[in-house]
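# nightly structure sweep
# worker-07 picked up a monomer target from the shared queue
# config: single-sequence mode, recycle default, output format = structure tokens
# input follows
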Amino acid sequence: MKTQKLHLKAPDNWVNDPNGFIYYKGYYHLFYQYFPYGPRWGTMHWGHAVSRDLVNWEHKGLALYPSRREDQNGCFSGSAVEYQGKLYLAYTGVRYEAVNPEDPHTCLEDQFESAQLMISSEDGFHFDNQKDKEVIIPPITIPEIGDRTHTRDPKIWRGRDAWYLVLGSTTEERFGEVLFYRSRDLHTWSYVNKAWKGPEYGWMWECPDYFETEGGKVLLISAMNLLDNREKEKNQTICFPVEFEEESCRMEIPDQYQFLDYGMDLYAPQTNLDQEGRRVMMAWVRMPQVTEEGWIGMFCSPRVVEVREGHICFRMHPHIRQAYSREIPDPSRASEGGYMASFALEEGEEADLGGFRVRREKGRIRTDRTGVYPSFEGAHLISETPEITGKTHLEVLVDRHLIEVYVNDGEYVISNAVYGLGSGISYRGPEQIRLYTTEN
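# output follows
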């Protein structure tokens, strides 16, 4: 199986959402939406990769594939938990009611239904797709609760005295919502409550993730058609500091939100706890075209989620920073894992990393990938953070197809997919730029 370092990429063909992210029996497991038949979206399977340290990854092949009526047209996104020594995966199964006659991997006019299924494994590596699947939440039939078609992406967590599950859905009025369920045994689930905002927050909420940190409680949602602009990616992941009462599953969601990432390329994040108990997030990097090697889709580097004075931060995971341990004079000395650039920017100053430009302008960090990104209608070329007061120190991870700009230890992050990076660097700033790479 293929091994990869630092950034987990598609083993071939197509990947999108990360699924079932968990630390279990000595390994970090990351499952992912995978179409094994070509570099395009289609009937979803779950691919599987593992790591001992979040740095070195090994692809392990298929974990889930369609095998029963409820998931015959795809095993879509979900999550993982450990219970009584077993690994449990919960996911959305899809059944098309009107298959596209020109393409059996798609349906016509959203004519499908969604159910929530579960499967378990004794070791986290072997899953019996023929015998062990069970439906835990059938397609919703009460419109006042949720949508029969667009309800998906179960995220499970253990509460004080029961298991809880959140699903993304849409209301009868067509704006996004989350649905909360409770179970005593992981198998029998009861609907408890729901939460929503309004039409300006997207028509459907995908990939919900609720969790607690020392600094506060957080809700992540991937809101469909959130942005009203000419750019390609109108679906964006946003996050809220929230209040949540477990017994009633009542959630208070404020009006103001943050973007998960200000590069606008990340989507469908998933979090879980690492070996040390830190809340860690990974997300899909949306890419506009197939790479020269014939694959499309990858994942951002793992990030620790924290709430600092009401602001949700995504700092570089310490294992990633430690991996960039060898200082180098220029990018030509970088290993296969790319390099990390560390520097500061004051107003009007700029760094050019192989044609990818990072600048401080009007108190914001701005990136420009015009020179290293395909040109097409709706391409998102310029990204920027909100205004930042005081000093800005940057740590920038430079990979062949992804650049991640961490601002002030995760106060904000800009992640941009790139193509055709050069090897030159120019920098005008208040301190020396330092470059680091990994040991070979």
